[in-house]
Design a protein that fits this description.
Helices cover 16% and strands 29% of the residues. The chain is built from nine helices and 26 strands. β25 and β26 (403-415) form a beta hairpin.
């Protein structure tokens, strides 16, 4: 097994087999810049950009001096593969180029605890899918009953909607409880009030790479070339605002106030060894959505709730990305089948990820079953939905053959609503 000369603890999310990309700054240099995580360190790519001297990147070294990953994402899979091979070589225990150059090492490595993380890309567009069958069935049962839980189109296409890119924030950013219109009493007019049913949604998302031209769909045989890497996501949801507004056009203010993502982008090459068979699909999708190669991943997911009333964070749910019905390839191909153009750094999300058991449901709406079953957190503390001061902490990791590939955490603390 390849080892790095940078010490990496066994429970670290960031061994040399991972090396995820992010954007960071430091107190002594507030300029956002690109880095990769290795152990508890960040390798500053702007400092070592001259070492990317392969056949593709030797003429593209300027992308490592950018303040976002967009330019690097635009280069495509051959460049991503070359960069990964270069980084793994530079960080390996038997490679002296960086290991033995103390001056360069001092400038190139930054402790993660001293860095501030930023959004990894300039997100031009953000799309949220609804691709977990367990979640869609649960929510459908609540509002329409088991017989009509899934809408007629659900097993034929990856259902999605266009979200608000401007309110995507990086992990650690506080989230303000929104105000809006709700209709708590169906027999009375709506009222303007603070959200009372604030929820998290356990999701993952992927960043897109090279653009496709307007009018030119991304076909299934090319889809993998346009998927750069994945992050954790909490797509916060104001359930009471959403319930009143969503007919007939879907989510709007109930979703646009905040979406949190983790700062480190784990590449698809790092996840390759954790591939599992795709979920069986019935009926068989239309030909443009079919692919036989496995493109689902065994990613363990966990959501903890931290609150002043608890002695330690409480585990709300444990789920797994392998429960997704529609794959990332299918999501991207369907998104562009009309000729819709994507750009480097666009963000496409999975939708809430729920497993088959009650402890694997990926939202408070499901865990408390629409407010009918309070969640016991210990010490007499219960929750139906999120309260002010609650902090939601999401984590994700893959593990096999002694290798752990993790995503870090995706966190956000709820602030009180503004008085209006």
């Amino acid at each position: 097994m390849t080892m790095s000369y940078i010490p990496v603890s066994p429970d670290s999310d960031f061994p040399i087999q991972n090396i995820p990309y992010g954007v960071f700054s430091t107190p002594d240099n507030p300029t956002p810049r690109l880095g990769v995580a290795i152990g508890d360190q960040i390798l500053d790519l702007s400092v070592i950009r001259h070492l990317f001297d392969g056949p593709i990147l030797q003429s593209q070294q300027s992308v490592f001096s950018e303040s976002t990953l967009n330019a690097f994402m635009s280069l495509g899979r051959p460049a991503w593969k070359e960069a990964r091979e270069t980084l793994q070589k530079l960080l390996s225990a038997d490679e002296p180029i960086l290991r033995d150059n103390s001056s360069l090492r001092d400038r190139a490595f930054v402790p993660q605890h001293s860095a501030r993380m930023h959004l990894p890309a300039r997100i031009g567009d953000y799309t949220d899918f609804y691709s977990s069958k367990n979640h869609a069935y649960n929510v459908g049962c609540m509002f329409r009953g088991p017989e009509n839980a899934l809408m007629p189109n659900w097993t034929h296409l990856p259902v999605g909607y266009h979200g608000r890119a401007s309110s995507v924030v990086v992990s650690g950013t506080p989230v303000r409880r929104p105000n809006g219109q709700t209709r708590p009493d169906d027999a009375s007019p709506p009222v303007f009030t603070k959200c009372k049913l604030l929820d998290f949604e356990l999701e993952m998302a992927f960043f897109t790479g090279p653009a496709n031209e307007l009018g030119q769909p991304i076909t299934m045989d090319k889809a993998e070339d346009h998927i750069f890497g994945m992050v954790l996501m909490n797509d916060w949801s104001a359930r009471d605002i959403q319930k009143w507004e969503y007919v007939p056009l879907g989510p709007f203010l109930g979703k646009n106030f905040a979406t949190t993502i983790s700062p480190w982008v784990v590449t698809m090459d790092a996840l390759k060894s954790f591939t599992v068979p795709n979920m069986p699909q019935n009926p068989v999708p239309l030909p443009y959505l079919q692919h036989e190669d496995p493109y689902s991943f065994d990613i363990n997911l966990q959501v903890n709730l931290k609150s002043d009333g608890l002695s330690q964070p409480h585990v709300l749910c444990r789920s797994n990305y392998k429960y997704m019905y529609w794959t990332m390839k299918q999501q991207l191909v369907h998104h562009t089948v009309t000729g819709c153009n994507t750009n480097p750094g666009d963000l496409l999300a999975s939708g809430t990820i729920s497993g088959e058991t009650t402890d694997s449901f990926g939202s408070m709406l499901e865990l408390c079953w629409k407010g009918t079953k309070p969640i016991e957190l210990g010490g007499g503390v219960t929750r139906k939905f999120l309260q002010d001061g609650d902090e939601v902490i999401m984590s994700g990791w893959c593990e096999n053959n002694g290798v752990r590939i993790g995503f870090g955490t995706c966190t956000g603390k709820v602030l009180p609503a503004l008085d209006m």
